[in-house]
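User: tokens in, sequence out, please.
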């Protein structure tokens, strides 16, 4: 019997028949995430465990048989992190979606990993609580995926990214052992922060089977402020000035190319002649949200905005936020697209925007830049005619140049989408050799046989 057959035999005896898939058509749909430009292969099977015990049994068998395992949440990733590799078993947690406990007194929720972000938000909302991290994909990404990519979102500029919400995790290790990491308390420094190490580890250290996440009371109602700029660099300068003085609960940017693509896809009256649009929200309590919004718009005026206004109209606010959330979907519909995800210190944002435009000119491609401006996190997305291979090759060069721009401005090659199999080489450029060695030794300690998501997240060494 081959090692793969031995593993599948254990899966057969552990899982219900309907929780194991080997049909090639279905396998294909679980073989890659939403990224373009990343490589993927067909797995030997996909399993859908429903409990920690089932995950542990499958992992112990995979370890014994040395079969690689690719953890998968909802497959909305944008870096190839959950793409299958040749001969791998995909372990998808989408059927582990129970909320296990909502603890109002201590302010946390414990949940299985497969639940969608927005489902969890709704669930805790019924108890008057709020789970802050809100990726634009919140309606179709899982909490386990959010933990493993350390996902950001629109309100993270004030309320923090996923890492800031993780109190504890249950993790199944590569050999099937189960451990509980982290704590229930707000403070706690006992031992290394192993839960923190798992956050953003892209399924290379263990399978997250439970997440204990910090909840907050619902924030006060937000005021929306909008500023239009002729020059995208001015929007970058305004962002840095705003963040030096205020704490908005959202500060998002769309450049002209993005506005055009979104408006093309779903006409909604966006100003497609604007060089850039900043959409901000303030939710400071005790009535000061309005004052903060006014000050924010004053800063935009001082930095060259051509038009500013505070939106009193909820429908308009929803429309603008919807436009921002739709940006990636609009690009997907437009043609071939290659989405980048870089972050720079906010003081370098204006420079980054200008240099990204230069990259577009140099390679004769369209680059739509949008993103979480308040975090310095940009998603320059290269659009080319569908099927135009020559333009596709130029897009790849532009993609690489954008990473270089970020690095040269003291930024990073990924702000929130992760390294996956798309940016391993770029990661080697960002980390020094000592850090690369440490990464390698940490991986070795957690997964000595290297069966967990091989070929992902770590630099090439
Ligand atoms: C339209 C659109 C908008 C987006 N907006 C944002 C945004 O605003 N912010 C943002 O950060 N991202 C965004 N993303 C990217 C994506 O949604 C996030 O990276 C998300 O966290 C991935 O979750 P997932 O459940 O789909 O994970 P997957 O894609 O299935 O997996 C992601 C990674 O996590 C690992 N993994 C998943 N579950 C587990 C688990 N239980 N245990 C161990 N490893 C696991 C996988 O191996 C992989 O490495 C967007 C994507 C799209 C398509």
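Assistant: Sequence out:
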């Amino acid at each position: 019997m081959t090692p793969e057959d031995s593993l599948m035999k254990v899966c057969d005896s552990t899982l219900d028949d309907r929780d194991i898939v080997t049909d090639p058509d279905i396998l294909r749909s679980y073989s890659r995430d939403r990224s373009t430009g990343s490589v993927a292969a067909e797995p030997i099977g996909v399993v859908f465990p429903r409990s920690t015990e089932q995950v542990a049994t499958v992992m112990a068998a995979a370890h014994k048989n040395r079969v690689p395992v690719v953890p998968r949440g909802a497959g909305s990733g944008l870096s190839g992190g959950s793409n299958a590799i040749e001969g791998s078993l995909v372990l998808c947690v989408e059927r582990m979606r129970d909320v296990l406990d909502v603890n109002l007194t201590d302010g946390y929720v414990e949940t299985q990993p497969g639940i969608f972000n927005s489902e969890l938000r709704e669930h805790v909302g019924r108890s008057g609580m709020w789970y802050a991290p809100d990726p634009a994909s919140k309606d179709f990404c899982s909490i386990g995926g959010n933990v493993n990519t350390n996902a950001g979102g629109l309100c993270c500029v004030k309320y923090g990214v996923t890492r800031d919400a993780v109190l504890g995790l249950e993790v199944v290790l590569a050999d099937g052992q189960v451990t509980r990491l982290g704590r229930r308390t707000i403070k706690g420094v006992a031992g290394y922060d192993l839960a923190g190490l798992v956050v953003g580890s892209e399924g290379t250290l263990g399978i997250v089977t439970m997440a204990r996440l910090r909840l907050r009371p619902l924030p006060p109602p937000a005021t929306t402020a909008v500023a239009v700029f002729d020059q995208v660099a001015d929007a970058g300068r305004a962002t840095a000035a705003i963040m030096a003085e205020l704490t908005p609960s959202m500060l998002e940017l769309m450049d002209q190319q993005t506005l055009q693509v979104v408006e093309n896809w779903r006409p909604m009256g966006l100003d497609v002649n604007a060089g850039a649009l900043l959409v901000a929200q303030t939710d400071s309590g005790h009535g000061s949200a309005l004052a903060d919004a006014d000050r924010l718009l004053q800063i935009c005026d001082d930095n060259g905005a051509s038009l500013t206004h505070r939106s009193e109209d909820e429908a308009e606010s929803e429309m603008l936020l919807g436009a921002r959330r739709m940006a990636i979907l609009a690009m997907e519909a437009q043609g071939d697209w290659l989405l980048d995800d870089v972050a720079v210190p906010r003081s370098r944002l204006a420079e980054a925007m200008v240099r990204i435009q230069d990259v577009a000119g140099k390679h004769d491609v369209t680059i739509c830049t949008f993103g979480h401006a308040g975090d310095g996190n940009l998603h320059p997305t290269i659009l080319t005619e569908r099927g135009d291979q020559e333009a596709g090759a130029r897009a790849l060069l532009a993609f690489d140049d954008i990473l270089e721009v970020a690095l040269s401005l003291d930024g990073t090659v990924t702000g929130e989408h992760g390294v996956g199999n798309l940016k391993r080489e770029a990661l080697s450029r960002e980390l020094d050799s000592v850090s690369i060695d440490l990464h390698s030794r940490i991986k070795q300690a957690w997964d000595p046989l290297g069966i967990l998501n091989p070929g992902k997240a770590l630099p090439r060494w």
